[in-house]
Design a protein that fits this description.
This protein is an all-alpha fold. It is built from seven helices and no strands. It has helices spanning 3-21, 26-42, 52-82, 94-113, 116-127, 132-139, 143-159. The longest helix has 31 residues, at 52-82.
Length: 169
Amino acid sequence: MSFDTLYEEHAEDVFVWARRYAAGRSGWAEDITHDVFLKAWEHRAWLREEDVRGWLFRVTQNVAFSALRRENTFRRRVTDLLFPPQRAETESSPEAVLERREALRSATATLDRLPGQERVVMALKLLDDLSQREIAQLLSLSEGYVSKLISRAQDRLSAWGWKVDDGTP
């Protein structure tokens, strides 16, 4: 079976499976579908037609779970960035907890609005404290392109009300 045939016959199923994990986010499901078929391309030499559907289902599930884990890690990093762990106990009032939850929800929703590459680059910059050079190496991009993505993301975030000139939301 050619890779084109594999994609044509199974892309819709993989997308449907990915949407189950996507919480209504079609773009997220499309990203998962893309990643699944990248894995299929990498393993094309040993994929057999009779069990490819089951393999694709398992890979879709694994890729989706990994993406969800990364999102949870991302949200925890945003929480730590916005609300450092050394907060005083007096700030554990119900009002403070609610305020932190609302700020976190707003921050993650804002970051989630960024286009995919900009979101990844900004997460690596802000949350993982990587340099442009490190980000470029990690993502196999040129430093100039990473700089452009960061600039675009900062412009968008500023337009949405975030202060990003010093690297913090």
